[in-house]
Amino acid sequence: MGAIPEADPDEVLETKPFKFVTGYDARFPQQNQTKHCWQNYVDYYKCTTAKGEDFRPCKQFYHAFRSLCPKAWTDRWDGQREAGNFPVHLDK
Amino acid sequence: MIYKSKSNFQNHPFHLVSPSPWPLFTSLSLFILTTATVLFMHGFQGFQYLVALAVFNVIYVMALWFRDVISEGTYLGNHTNAVQKGLNLGVGLFIISEVFFFLAIFWAFFHSAISPSVELGAQWPPLGIQAVNPFELPLLNTILLLSSGVTITYAHHSLIQGNRKGALYGTVVTIILAVIFTFFQGVEYSVSSFTISDSVYGSCFYFGTGFHGLHVIIGTAFLAVGLWRLAAYHLTDHHHLGYESGILYWHFVDVVWLFLYISVYYWGY
Amino acid sequence: MFPQRNLGRLSQRAAQQMRSAPVRSTIQRRFNSAEAKPSWIVDNEFNRERAAVKHHAASTSDLWRKLSIFAVIPCLIGGGLNAYNLWSEHWEHWEHMPPLEERTEYPYQNIRVKNFPWGDGDKTIFWNSDVNYHNKDKAT
C-alpha cells in the first residue's frame, strides 16, 4: 500500500469492481486474518476520532478493514460503537 | 508342617482382597450423581434433592470403603511393605492424573488469554472486568498455603521421629491454615465484581480457582482423616501411608495454587 | 512399655532372629548396649536404615518447628496486614466509581443462554448485588 494521493477535485467518480487492497502485514503472518481485520477497524476509528473524518491517511485503515472484514462483523461493531459498549476505548 | 497348619500361612507378601460391596455401590452412587446433575442442569424440577442425596451417598459409601481399608491396613496387618509399595504407586499415578486434569484447565486459560479474541476487544482482561488484585487476598492465600506446607512437614518429621505431640500440633495447625484459605477464597468469590458468566475471563478464572478450591477441600478432609488416625493411635513412626498420601496430595494442591497464582492472578491482572 | 499379651510373641520373634544372626553377637549386644534398645532389633540393613531415618527426622523436625514458628507467623502477620491495607484501599476506590447501573455493560458480560436452575434464574452462585449488576436492556 503506497501513500494515498490527494483527491483531484476534477476527477470524475466512477464505480470500479471490488479490489483486494490489503497487502501483507508482518503483524498478522497467519492464515487467520481475523485480527488483521480487527486491528484496521480499531485503527480507522481511532484515527478519525483523533484527526477527524476528513483526514485522508485514515483511509488506508478504512480500505483495509473494508476488504478484510465480513460485513456482519463490522455491522455488529458499528452497533456496539453506537450503543457505547464497543470493547475498546477509541479515544485513547 | 501338616497340611492344615501350612494352609494358615501365605508364602507371599501380597494382599488378596476379599469380596466387597463398595466398588459396586460407589459406581451406582456416582451414576446417580451424574444423571441427577445433568437432569438438574437441564431444568428438571426437584432434581436438586436427588443431587444432594447422591453427593451424600457417594461420600457415605467412600467412608465405608475407607473404613474397611483402614481395618485391613491397621488392624489386620494386610499392608505389608510390598502392599505399601503398590498403594504408594497408586497414589502417585492418581496424582499424575490430577496433574493432567489441571493441565487441561490451564490449557483452556492460556488458549483464551495469550491471544484474546476480537469479541473481547483483543485484550486480557477485557474492558469492564475488574480483575482481582493479586497482591491482596491472593498473596495472603499464597502465604497461607506455603505456610501449611511448612507446618505439615514439621508434623510429618515429628511423626517419623516418634514425637506424637509435634505431629498432632503440626497437623492441627495445617488444617486450620487450610480452612482459613478456603474461607478467604469464599470471601474473594463473594466480593468479586465479575461472575463465571462474565466472558471467557470469568469462565476460565472460576474454572481454575473453583476446581482448585474443591481440591483444597478434599485435601483438607484427607489431612483431617490423617489427624483422626494420628489421635487414635493408628499410625506408627514407620507405617503411615494414608497420612503420607494426604501430605503428598496437599503438596500437589499447593503447587497447583502457585501456578494459578502466577498465571491467572498475577500475569492475567 | 508392652502389654502383657505381646510378650509371648516378642520372645518368639527374638528366638527366630537369634537363629538367623550369630548367637554370640546378639548376646553381646544385649549386655553391652548402653541404650535401652529392645533386644530383638538385630543389626541388619533394614533396621539400620530405619534407625537412621528416625535419627535424621529428629534434627529436621527441629528445623521445621523453628520455621513454623519464626518464619510462618511473621509472614502471616505481614501478609495479613498487607491484605487488610489493600482491601481498605480497594473499597475506598470502589466508592468513588460510578454506581453499578451507570457502568458500561459490554456484550460479553452476563452471558445467559437459559435460566439457571436456581433462584430467579438470573443470578450466578456467588452473586452479590452490591458488586454484581445485570443490565437486562443491554444493547447488542
From TrEMBL, chain A:
Report keywords, A-Z.
Answer: Disulfide bond, Mitochondrion
Q: Does the keyword Mitochondrion apply?
A: yes
Q: In which pathway does it act?
A: Energy metabolism; oxidative phosphorylation
Q: Which domain of life is it from?
A: Eukaryota
Q: Name one GO biological process term.
A: mitochondrial electron transport, cytochrome c to oxygen
- Cysteines engaged in disulfide bonds, as pairs: 37-69, 47-58
Extract the PANTHER family matched here.
CYTOCHROME C OXIDASE SUBUNIT 6B
Q: Which family does it belong to?
A: Belongs to the cytochrome c oxidase subunit 6B family.
- State the protein's purpose: Component of the cytochrome c oxidase, the last enzyme in the mitochondrial electron transport chain which drives oxidative phosphorylation.
What's the name of the protein? Cytochrome c oxidase subunit
Taxonomy, top ranks, is:
Eukaryota, Fungi, Dikarya, Ascomycota, Pezizomycotina
UniProtKB/TrEMBL annotation, chain B:
Which GO molecular function entries does the Swiss-Prot or TrEMBL record give?
A: cytochrome-c oxidase activity
What keywords sit in the KW lines?
Answer: Membrane, Mitochondrion, Translocase, Transmembrane, Transmembrane helix
- Membrane topology of the entry: Multi-pass membrane protein
The reply on keyword Repeat is: no
**Does the entry feature the keyword tRNA processing, yes or no?**
no
Subcellular location field = Mitochondrion inner membrane
Where do transmembrane segments lie in this chain? 21-41, 47-66, 87-110, 137-155, 167-185, 205-228, 248-268
Reaction(s) catalyzed by this protein?
4 Fe(II)-[cytochrome c] + O2 + 8 H(+)(in) = 4 Fe(III)-[cytochrome c] + 2 H2O + 4 H(+)(out)
Q: Which terms in the GO cellular component ontology are assigned?
A: mitochondrial inner membrane; respiratory chain complex IV
Q: Which InterPro entries match?
A: Cyt_c/ubiquinol_Oxase_su3, Cyt_c_oxase_su3_dom, Cyt_c_oxidase-like_su3, Cyt_c_oxidase_su3-like_sf, Cyt_c_oxidase_su3_a-hlx
Q: Which PROSITE patterns match?
A: COX3 (PS50253)
One Pfam assignment: COX3
Q: Where is the Heme-copper oxidase subunit III family profile domain?
A: 10-269
Q: Name one GO biological process term.
A: mitochondrial electron transport, cytochrome c to oxygen
Q: Which CDD domains match?
A: Cyt_c_Oxidase_III
Q: What does this protein do?
A: Component of the cytochrome c oxidase, the last enzyme in the mitochondrial electron transport chain which drives oxidative phosphorylation. The respiratory chain contains 3 multisubunit complexes succinate dehydrogenase (complex II, CII), ubiquinol-cytochrome c oxidoreductase (cytochrome b-c1 complex, complex III, CIII) and cytochrome c oxidase (complex IV, CIV), that cooperate to transfer electrons derived from NADH and succinate to molecular oxygen, creating an electrochemical gradient over the inner membrane that drives transmembrane transport and the ATP synthase.
Similarity field: Belongs to the cytochrome c oxidase subunit 3 family.
Q: What is this protein called?
A: Cytochrome c oxidase subunit 3
Organism the protein comes from: Penicillium rubens (strain ATCC 28089 / DSM 1075 / NRRL 1951 / Wisconsin 54-1255)
TrEMBL record, chain C:
Spell out the InterPro entries in the cross-references.
Cyt_c_oxidase_su6a (IPR001349), Cyt_c_oxidase_su6a_CS (IPR018507), Cyt_c_oxidase_su6a_sf (IPR036418)
The record lists the membrane-crossing segments as: none
One Pfam match: COX6A
Q: Which GO terms describe its cellular component?
A: mitochondrial inner membrane
What's a GO biological-process term for it?
mitochondrial electron transport, cytochrome c to oxygen
GO function term, MF aspect, one: enzyme regulator activity
Which biological pathway?
A: Energy metabolism; oxidative phosphorylation
Query: Where is the segment annotated Disordered?
Result: 1-21
Question: What topology in the membrane does the UniProt record assign?
Answer: Single-pass membrane protein
Main subcellular location of this protein, as a coarse class? mitochondrion
Alphabetized, the UniProt keywords read: Membrane, Mitochondrion, Mitochondrion inner membrane, Oxidoreductase, Transit peptide, Transmembrane, Transmembrane helix
Subcellular localization is given as: Mitochondrion inner membrane
UniProt similarity note? Belongs to the cytochrome c oxidase subunit 6A family.
What name appears for this protein in its UniProt entry?
Cytochrome c oxidase subunit
Organism for this UniProt entry:
Penicillium rubens (strain ATCC 28089 / DSM 1075 / NRRL 1951 / Wisconsin 54-1255)
